[in-house]
Amino acid sequence: MSTMQTRTAGDVAVTSPASKRARKSDKSRAEARLGWYLAGPAFVILVAVTGYPILQALYESLFSFRLTAPGDREFVGLKNYGVILTDSLWWRALGNTALITVVTVAVELVIGFALAMVMHKVLGWLRPIVRTAILVPYAIITVVSAYAWQYAFGLTTGFMNTLLGLGDYDWFANKWTALAVICLSEIWKTTPFISLLLLAGLAQVPSDMTEAAKVDGATAWERLWRVTLPNMKASIMVALLFRALDAFRIFDNVYIMTNGAAGTETVSSVAYNQTISRLEIGLGSAVSVLLFVCVLLICFVAIKGFKVDLARARGEG
Amino acid sequence: MAGRWRTRVCTASVGIVLAGGLTACGGSSTASGTPTLNWYINPDNGGQQTIAQACSEASGGAYTIDVSILPSDAAAQREQLMRRLAGNDASIDLMSLDPVFVPETAEAGFLAPIPADLQAELSEGVVEGAVQGASWKGELVAAPFWANTQLLWYRESVAQAAGLDMSKPVTWEQLIEAAQSQDTAIGVQGQRAESMTVWVNAMIASAGGQVIENPDAKGPDIRLGLETEAGAAAAKVMQDITAAGVGGPGIDNRDEAGTANLFQQGGAAFMVNWPFVYAQGKAAAEEGTMDQAVFDDYGWTTYPAMSADQPAAPPLGGIDVGVGAFSENREAAFEALRCIVSAENQAAYMVSDGNPAARESVYDDPAVQEAYPMYDTIRTSLQAAAPRPQTAYYNEVSQGIADQWQPVASVGEDTPTAAQEYIQQVLRGEKLL
Q1: Between residues 167 and 206 of chain A, which touch chain B (CB distance below 8 Å)?
Q2: Partner of B252 for a Cys bridge, out of A154, A255, B36, B407, CB 3.0 to 4.6 A?
Q3: Cβ(B417)–Cβ(B234) below 8 Å
């Protein structure tokens, strides 16, 4: 929600300064009204389906409440938050989640950009084939891809040990190798998404600018850093934000591959374990609320940065 | 144009009406007045479905049983049932429950109380451990259907070469020594999962201890028996396995199926596991994925003991069938329950699905004896078996044990104490799990 509001505020600030607002005509007011008529129902539904559970989670997080012992429900105030924030498991999970987010998003951005360039440059009959080939992993369900990677690295089912000559090495028994496989799977699966967003950005870079730079004698490397990248900063920020939010909520890959063993818990898996497995609704809701706060924080930081970049990208900064 | 629209709207309404009607039917009864009972089952080889059909036919129109399949692992089955029951789901008439979750389900009031006369009937001739597993606070709350137990499986040739006398009970110490001398492994379940609790509990019970000293207590008041001599003895076995290097490859991610595969492929010449491995080995030999000679080399005996002077208390598992507290067809469900767990059905199920019966008389059935040559070992093991902690907080205790006793190589002298403190903190709501 706050994403939406902040963004709207940002757009208003950029596109309609105070001087224009005074001259707001009947036509623009009618357009605004039409906008609300069109978007209003969706807005209301969105608030109902996201706002209600968020508020409910906030409320439940103040209780000690176990689903199988409804009679023992008790108001405990902020105790659940105290328990979580003083627990090493929470901080370990948060560290793992942050690590996975940073590593996967950084790697995906680089590979995704390269793939976007390929998709952008390929011409003729090869173009649809290349684009489809690059997008295939994204069309696969995460659970399925998680199993595929787990089977590939698994001790009894895997071929990776034979391929790498590692014998009986157990990838999922060590935290770092397990996290590496989880990251690999995540990167393989979602790089196409980021490259798709970057492709849209690449298409927006005016070709006359790159051509002018070329005429001026700029090398390909200079054209990339001085012309292409600055012109698609906005798309890069959008891609980063979307992927970072997505990566921070990582669950499927961890659940399938290690289920949190070998110290690979993530914030989402901790929330799942308290709420769904232990049925401790109060404690679980508190973890979920904290996860939500983390996501909001990422959003806030990214959008603050995003607004500046947006202005700069439009030559207003 | 208008005509076409009218047709579409009409079709749509018919669809909606039909859907509504179907939902109504799905709830409880068909038009003929025969109640339809919904039985939530754990996945098997189709044996429960066959029993459902047989009982429906035998009821003479008193009820029809439909089965719905739950996820494959016990923890996921519990999650689904609990969430439905917490929402007062009336569609659960009958449910197949792992005994370890019976206390939690009963304590929450999700199981319909069984009438006293039926309780007596359902527990008659059933092995003691299975009755205990299906009871909570002195009442039988579910019907024992089948009762599982782990055996010690071994390659006869390897045991012989190691000089082990398998006609007598063996100890973990002897096993570790034998495995080391023959350069082989002992297949144990070292995964961070419920199977770890099965192993730890069996070792503690075999050493004369118990994981929970006051099972009826509420979470914060539960007293654990991990920080005891029995707990230390269990930790010692794990340390010895690590020190001798007989855990085998991938021990930390190995469940029952993984252990069975390791044994089948020759990676381990000893293993502790449920009897399904026999049927699996037989099938592999018939399909040609394993040499018949290897299958002929399969040997079995009762679970390893902790010391020579104290017999083992093997793990106890199985499935109990309970009646949902919110069922609208309780009477019919109790009738169905009586039919499902009858001795004939248990015998047929044991032959078709390889799951040992809870009723002792079934082991005298010639068909059972022919299909399972180890029937007598299973019966003996069931009689000596110790159930896992019977508590409404089993999930916390089990996850806590799995968390602290894993990886196997990290288990040391202080593990029982650390596990005890951790689980008690979790139960008091002071720690995450």
Answers
A1: 168, 170, 172-173
A2: B407
A3: no
**Is B192 in Cβ contact with A259 (below 8 Å)?**
yes
Q: Are strands B94-97 and B135-136 parallel, antiparallel or unpaired?
A: unpaired
Shortest Cα distance, chain A CAs vs residue B179, angstroms: 19
Tokens standing for B35? Answer: 């109640």
User: How many angstroms away from the CA of B343 is the closest CA of chain A?
Assistant: 33
CB atoms within 10 A of CB B159: 22
Residue corresponding to tokens 């009218």: B6
Instruction: Determine the distance in angstroms separating the CA of A305 from the nearest CA of chain B, rounded to an integer.
Output: 35
Does residue B61 contact residue B84 with C-beta atoms inside 8 Å? no
DSSP E strands in B13-62: the ranges are 36-41
**Is residue A94 included in any domain, yes or no?**
yes
Collect all residues of chain A within an 8 Å Cβ-Cβ radius of residue B110: 68
Contact B107 A69 (CB under 8 A): yes
Question: Residues for chain B: how many in total?
Answer: 433
Q: Which residues in chain A come in under a pLDDT of 50?
A: 1-18, 308-317
State the pTM of this model: 0.82
* Chain A: residue whose CA lies nearest to B259: A156
B433·A170 Cβ contact <8 A: no
Q: Smallest CA–CA separation between A241 and chain B, in Å?
A: 30
Question: How many other C-beta atoms lie within 10 A of the C-beta of residue A317?
Answer: 10
Euclidean distance between CA atoms A105 and B175, whole angstroms: 49
Single out the residue of A292, A294, A299 nearest to residue A243, CA to CA. A299
**Residue A253 falls inside a structural domain:** yes
**Is residue A261 in a domain?**
yes
Q: Do A156 and B261 touch (CB under 8 A)?
A: yes
Give the phi and the psi of residue B240 in degrees, each rounded to 5: -65, -40
Determine the longest span between alpha carbons in chain A, in angstroms: 78
How many independent structural domains does chain A possess?
1
Tell me the C-alpha distance between A142 and A192, whole Å.
13
Domains of chain B: 25-141+316-384 (3.40.190.10), 149-315+388-427 (3.40.190.10)
Asked, for residue A273, whether it belongs to a domain, the answer is: yes
Percentage of chain A lying above the pLDDT 90 cut: 53
- The pair phi, psi for residue B231, each rounded to 5°, is -65, -40
Tell me if B253 and A155 make a contact (CB, 8 A cut-off).
Answer: yes
Do B252 and A168 contact (CB within 8 A), yes or no? no
Quote the domain boundaries for residue A185: 89-313
B399 interface with A at CB cutoff 8 Å: yes
Domain at A109, CATH number? 1.10.3720.10
Over chain A, what HEC string results?
Answer: CHHHHHHHHHHHHHHCCHHHHHCCCHHHHHHHHHHHHHHHHHHHHHHHHHHHHHHHHHHHCCEEEECCEEEEEEECCCHHHHHHHCCHHHHHHHHHHHHHHHHHHHHHHHHHHHHHHHHHHCCCCHHHHHHHHHHHHHHCCHHHHHHHHHHHHCCCCCCHHHHHCCCCCCHHHCHHHHHHHHHHHHHHHHHHHHHHHHHHHHHHCCHHHHHHHHHCCCCHHHHHHHHHHHHCHHHHHHHHHHHHHHHHCCCHHHHHHCCCHHHCCCHHHHHHHHHHHCCEHHHHHHHHHHHHHHHHHHHHHHHHHHHHHHHHHCCCC
Whether residue B395 lies within 8 A of chain A, CB to CB, comes out as: yes
What is the ipTM, given to two decimal places?
0.80
Q: Would you call B143 helix, strand, or coil by DSSP? A: strand
- Residue A7: the pLDDT is 41
